[in-house]
Structure formats: C-alpha cells, structure tokens
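WARN retry 2 of 3 for item q-0093 after timeout on previous attempt; input resubmitted unchanged.
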Amino acid sequence: MKKKAVTTEEKVIVIPKNVNPIPSRVAASILQCSMGHVRWLRRNGRLKSWKLSGRYTMLDRKEVEALAKAKAKQETRLGAPSKGFQPDT
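OK item q-0093 returned
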C-alpha cells in the first residue's frame, strides 16, 4: 500500500494513501459540532487523526462522514425535539 508523505519542519508524517485527509475545522462543520468536541472524539478513539504540526490535525473524511450519518440516524430515531412545557388548553 503506497502512502503519501506530508513534510513538516521537524519530521515527515505519513498518511495512508486510501485516506482523504481533512482539517479538524472541516470535520466540525460536517459533524455540526464544536472543534472541542472533535478533539474529544479524537482523544477517545472515535476518529483516527494525524497531527501534522503543533496545532494542525487531519482526520479521515470517510470516518467523519460515517459518524455524521450515524448521528443523523440516531436523531431521527429519537423523534422531534421537545417543545418544553405545553399547558393543556
């Protein structure tokens, strides 16, 4: 399996060729969540990631989209969001 290399000043980070890398900011917009939640997902092993430099992280687009699809499916199972207290009329 061939791999593509991304060069940083310190070292070379190797990302597998079958991965479509996206920055964490794009992943947050796909998942419709904050960047902090994306960091939490990375740290807990839900998303695979590669750290390119001090603060620059890349994630696999396929994994992010699969997680977004699962999240959307779960929300549809739960039904419509609650409208809060509704008095009897």
